[in-house]
Amino acid sequence: MTDNRFFNRSEFFGILVLAVFLVVVLPLTLDVFRLNLVAKYLTYAFVALGLVICWGYGGILSLGQGVFFGLGGYCMAMFLKLEASSVENTKIQSTPGIPDFMDWNQITALPLFWKPFSSLTFTIAAIILVPGIFALIIGTAMFKRRVGGTYFAIITQAVAAILTILIVGQQGYTGGINGMTDLRTLKGWDIRPDHAKIVLYFFEVGLLFACIMIAQFVRHSKLGRILVAMREKEDRVRFSGYSVANFKIFAFCIAAMFAAIGGAMFALNVGFMSPSFVGIVPSIEMVIYTAVGGRLSILGAVYGTLLVNFAKTSLSETFPELWLFGLGGLFIAVVLAFPNGLAGIWGDYVQPRIDRLISSRKPKPDGWTDSSVADGAPAE
Amino acid sequence: MFGDYSLGDLGSIFVMQGFAGLILFSVYVLMALGLAIIFGQMGVINMAHGEFMILGAYVTWMTSNFFQAYLPSLFSGYFFLAMILAFVASGALGMLVEWVLIRHLYKRPLDTLLATWGLSLMLQQAYRSVFGAREVGVELPQWMLGSLHVTDSIEVPINGVFVMCLTVLITIGVAYVMYKSRWGRQVRAVVQNRIMAGAVGINTEKVDRYTFGLGCGIAGVAGSAFTMIGSTGPTSGQLYIVDTFLVVVFGGAASLIGTIASAFSISQTQSTLEFFMSGSMAKVLTLLAVVGILMLRPQGLFALKVRK
């Protein structure tokens, strides 16, 4: 396998290992319930992947990725909810044919912004475009005025707070705090039974690899190198004649779109969408997935997401009291001791040993971190 | 939206809502003061600031229980002791946190955000384990209950007036310490140029530790005052943290006057809007306005110096 525009030789093996793990090992060893849990975790991996580009490479820490995850998820959920609220399904309501929560809130006609979501084509376009355009607006407003770093983080956090309050407050239009529940079919295809869950899992893994490929392409392109240069010395890139703002906007928009795809898959896999996946707390948790995996490692984002979520599920099942201590400790440990996360540990400790083992037999090195990029903690 | 009210009614509404806004203003100012020191002066994004505040609230609650059980005759004055204890407890914890955690991260401000968020999760769980998940409220002494009659249609609660007076006193105290005392000069010197400050003989590490401790201690006092007007739970602090950061950023991070002005405008807008629409919409509109203005004027209302 020769180097190309998507990956070099060692990255190819890394992607192959992940593919075998997700496509062969997990489906064969886990039952459908656990596999659906993995599918749920992997929806966050899309967000983490976007954060690798935006935060790891671009140096832009967004604490509002839940906003885009939520926008994608709500777009999908609106389509599914409309399909689940057909006239015959909802004939006991005082106004049949509208979602149940609207009926409970004395709304008698479908609001205008809901109407286009009866079309699947429109919905798919909206899942990508609504968060993309929203990110474009925020990004343009912030980066053109050279707001960055901590200020950007705080303002994205405020946006997450605003959207959560809005969704919870506008119960009649959004389902309020309970969100949109009871999603049933996609174009007549029931998404609830086991075989549908399996199909959705494989579809999601396919989408994830598509996003990984896009991320790899960005990283290996000139664009990716400019992003890294910008993170390290923004002024020099600006003085070299590049429009720093436009590159930042691009990274932010890509991260937003990835998050939105994750959100849409979440609505499909889990069967509901609620504001508890939009606000500040989930947004920061999504950042920790990236940090644990290694903020510079595309594949690390996937492993980090899976690891943290597995730990969360098993710890909070057995020791609910300990979980927050564990998560909090993880944040502190990752920041203080392992700024490059799992990928950093792999690159610093595991890979050299493997290299030594292999080099005694054949001369080529192996592994999935690119040491030319992963060297050292990023300067902020 | 004004159509249904007479002019006199509107006047009373604005006064009453203005007063409710003033109480909100006091809470914002107390929380934002500590944060303005920690974030504005030191550049540390302390996401655990709300938890330091809650620590002060729990200390106040414990003090009030202690006085109720053992010193009922002195109960009416317990609050003053509680406030001092809250300051000491939060300040001491803050200095410990600075020593263990923050001092390693001064060059990586975005990482302080993640680390202190982790700290806030651990503190929340610690409060939940020690004090229980239920919200607790303190018993107010007799003289703080009731309200003052200003006119027939306007009444102001005494505990609100007390919290406001407290806010004014603490603000004056902080301003004095930061701008008049020798120690405040050292803090500002370290902020402006750490290397030069060290070169002229200031122990910058010690200044950092005490500055962080002071910010956290003020948060503790804020929590203490907070018990006068609301109940305290393990996650109460998290509700205010984003608002507080917005207050500090909106005012211009390094400016004390800016912090006060922005706390005033945000709280007044919110409480006035709250009367005319649902609380959630009032909050959304206020935050949107703040974010919108910040997009037009990223340096905040009162910018003292260049960012970065």
Fold and architecture overview:
The complex is a heterodimer of chains A (380) and B (308). By secondary structure, chain A is an all-alpha fold. Chain A is 70% helix and 1% strand. Chain A has a two-stranded antiparallel sheet with strand order 1-2. In chain A, strand 1 and strand 2 form a beta hairpin. The model of chain A is unreliable at 364-380 (pLDDT under 50). With 308 residues, chain B is mainly α. Chain B has one domain. Chain B has eleven helices and two strands. Chain B has a two-stranded antiparallel ribbon with strand order 1-2. In chain B, helix 2 packs parallel to helix 4. The radius of gyration of chain B is 20 Å and the shape is globular. Chain A binds chain B through residues 61, 63, 141-142, 145-147, 149-151, 153-155, 157-159, 161-162, 165-166, 168-169, 280-281, 284, 287-288, 291, 321, 323-325, 327-332, 334-336, 339, 377, 379-380, and chain B through 39, 43, 45, 101, 104-105, 107-111, 113-115, 117-122, 124-126, 128-129, 238, 242, 245-246, 249, 278, 280-281, 283-284, 287-288, 290-291, 294-295, 298, 307-308. Chain B: Pfam families: BPD_transp_2. Chain B: GO terms for molecular function: transmembrane transporter activity. Chain B: Keywords: Amino-acid transport, Cell membrane, Membrane, Transmembrane, Transmembrane helix, Transport.
